Amino acid sequence: MKEVEIRAKITDNTVASIERIGAVLKYESHEIDDYFKFGKDIDRKLVLRIRTSSKKTLLTFKGSAKGEDIVWSEWETEIERPEELKKLLLANGMVKVTTINKHRKSFSFGKFEINVDDIKNLGNFIEVQVMSENVSEARAEIEQILNRLGIQKEKFITKGYVPLMLESGATFK
Amino acid sequence: MKEVEIRAKITDNTVASIERIGAVLKYESHEIDDYFKFGKDIDRKLVLRIRTSSKKTLLTFKGSAKGEDIVWSEWETEIERPEELKKLLLANGMVKVTTINKHRKSFSFGKFEINVDDIKNLGNFIEVQVMSENVSEARAEIEQILNRLGIQKEKFITKGYVPLMLESGATFK
Question: A22-34 pLDDT, tens per residue?
Fold first, then answer.
């Protein structure tokens, strides 16, 4: 089973159309992700993410290596005292890459998950995802859902929020 | 209250003399500390330690910054799946600095703690420590205990196990 996902930028609030096709709101969340890297790690080989939400805080190591061996590209642990860790990182050679401040509305639509994300300084996005054995079939089904919501293929984006934020040149603190 | 500590290298096993002066064995432990840094972090500004023992595994960020502001020089969290984290670090630009493989016998002697450490590839050490408001008084008391154990001032060392290991040029894996 693979997670298949398509993301698109939305200019107005599509929440109304999502509810119109029969999707059900499951939860709303607010997460603030701070991304750090070593100042000298120009290629961003290793990135640390500290994710804060009302529920818990997670520390994630994200590696860019994709070797032939089994290499873990992500490792996560729940933590406490994130502010102390951030101070220590910034005082010792790490720099903040960006912050993704995300308000999410998550809907379920049959086997699909539909997320509407409001990313501070970046805009509103929709993500439709599903677990599937058949990637091309799943992509076709997701495209169909997006079409029903009035979102055409030209609007699809493959990049994640971090590269989008870096390209946007948004300032953050 | 500050932790005051003196360490010395011991050539033979001083455990017998420690017990003779009336210290009581509290516990024995075995810890393996793996130290990592960014390959490009030549000054070792930030070091990650993964400490494995029979009880639990700890991940510690150790910063070298000692600014005038309140800067956290150490941040620690309990973790699981350390082997996965190690693989991710080594595959993404971090290198192992050294490994400290330590068998410890810890004794209590009144208000003092006496540790006898057998460090693989480095030798045997004694550490006497106490929490005190008065550093110079505490140091004098510790020196007296060490003298009773036949360890004179010339044998005292101020360096930690990591710099000692690096100086020794010991190979490790």
Answer: 999 999 999 999 9
pTM: 0.83
What is the ipTM, given to two decimal places? Answer: 0.81
CATH fit for domain A2-168, picks 1.20.120.290, 2.40.50.90, 2.60.120.10, 2.40.320.10: 2.40.320.10
B71/A89 CB distance under 8 A:
no
Residue B37 has pLDDT above 80, yes or no: yes
**What mean pLDDT do residues B142-148 have?**
95
Probe site for chain A from B70, B87, B92 (most A CB atoms < 10 A): B92
* pLDDT given for residue A41 in this prediction: 86
List the domain boundaries for chain B: 2-168
Query: Is B71 within 8 Å of A88 when comparing Cβ atoms?
Result: yes
Confidence band (pLDDT; 50, 70, 90) for B71? low
Task: Note the Cα A163 to chain centre separation in Å.
Answer: 11
Positions of E strands within chain B: 2-10, 24-38, 46-52, 57-63, 74-79, 94-109, 112-119, 123-132, 156-157
Nearest-neighbour CA in chain B from A69: distance (Å): 10
Find residue A34's DSSP bridge partners: A50, A99
Of the partner residues A63, A67, A93, the one whose CB lies closest to the CB of residue B46:
A93
In whole angstroms, how far apart are CA A24 and each of A105, A113, A128, B71?
10, 10, 13, 46
Q: For B70, name the nearest residue in chain A, comparing CA atoms only.
A: A87
Collect all residues of chain A within an 8 Å Cβ-Cβ radius of residue B77. 59, 77, 79-80
Closest-CA residue in chain B for A75? Answer: B85
* pLDDT one-digit tens code per residue, A103-148: 999 999 999 999 999 999 999 999 999 999 999 999 999 999 999 9
φ/ψ (deg, to 5) at A10: -120, 135
